[in-house]
Amino acid sequence: MGILQNENAIPSASGGAGFYSHQIEQSCRFDSGSSSFLEAGFDGNSGQTAYTISFWIKRGNLFTGNDQVIMGNSGGWANWHFDNTDSNLEGVNQRGQSTPGALRDTGGWYNIIINQTATQDTVNIWINGVSQTVTSSGSGNFYTPLTNVSSAKLWLGKNSSSTYFDGYMAEVILVDGSNKINTDFGEFKNSIWKPIEYSGSFGTDGFHLKFQDANALGDDSSGNNNDFTANNMGADHQVLDSPTFGS
């Protein structure tokens, strides 16, 4: 689909508690000026090829000239980012994936769901519940930024080129080894995409980051204990602003 701006951003005050059956109580602030990021405290090497990740973001500083990385692999070959023209959401693994759409509304939340299928030749992407056209380029197989990568770390908000994300993230869920779809994480109500509580399993290397502990922002709530370590982030990086609650 085309440019994604104000008309598709999720306002954090859309009906409050009466509108949302599932509340996301806080988010984590990523500050590119302070080089803040989260690093996986575990090596992901489950042997799975499929994964699905769902996360909510709210943009901060918008700029051109550098990619804004949402997540990256310390090995340097896998990341998801907004390109340096801020016009596309792109993934880089052994091959490249791209979907057009500028998410430039700094006042609204966006839900991005990415599913890498087990066949390694298909990536499905939904933004605010709407399926996107994905264009692939290059050769080779796809690999996740987490599993099947020996001794490599997954970063949220950074890549191996030390390019950082600026903005907020909320309810980051990775399901390892499973193909999930948009309705596993959200639903439409009054034409607005809203989160629902994820009720499935997470797989070996899956995790669920709620950012509920200001002193341990990377705590995993999935039951897997796949915790992340906060870098250049203090307790003040937990904020009461989320897709369901405006600060």
Summarize the structure.
The chain is mostly beta strands.
Overall description:
- The chain is mainly beta.
- It has a single domain (6-239), classed as Jelly Rolls.
- Helices cover 2% and strands 34% of the residues.
- It has one helix at 16-19; strands spanning 27-30, 37-40, 51-59, 68-73, 79-82, 88-92, 96-100, 110-116, 123-127, 130-131, 135-137, 154-156, 167-176, 186-189, 192-195, 207-209, 228-231, 238-239.
- The model is unreliable at 1-7 (pLDDT under 50).
> What is the distance, rounded to the nearest whole angstrom, between the alpha carbons of the first and last residues?
31 Å
Proportion of beta-strand residues: 25-35%
What is the mean pLDDT? 83
Number of helices: 1
Computed CA radius of gyration, to the nearest angstrom: 16 Å
The CATH architecture classification is Sandwich
Provide the CATH topology.
Answer: Jelly Rolls
Number of domains: 1
Helix/strand class: mainly beta
> What level of helicity do the residues show?
under 10%
- Written as H for each helix and E for each strand, in order along the chain, the element string is HEEEEEEEEEEEEEEEEEE
CATH class: Mainly Beta
Question: What are the defining features of this structure?
Answer:
eight-stranded antiparallel β-sheet, 18 strands, 247 residues, mainly beta, Jelly Rolls, 1 helix, disordered N terminus, 2% helix
Record the SSE blueprint:
Blueprint: H1 16-19, E1 27-30, E2 37-40, E3 51-59, E4 68-73, E5 79-82, E6 88-92, E7 96-100, E8 110-116, E9 123-127, E10 130-131, E11 135-137, E12 154-156, E13 167-176, E14 186-189, E15 192-195, E16 207-209, E17 228-231, E18 238-239
Antiparallel strand pairs: 1-13, 1-18, 2-12, 2-17, 3-8, 3-13, 4-5, 4-12, 5-6, 6-7, 7-11, 8-9, 9-10, 13-16, 14-15
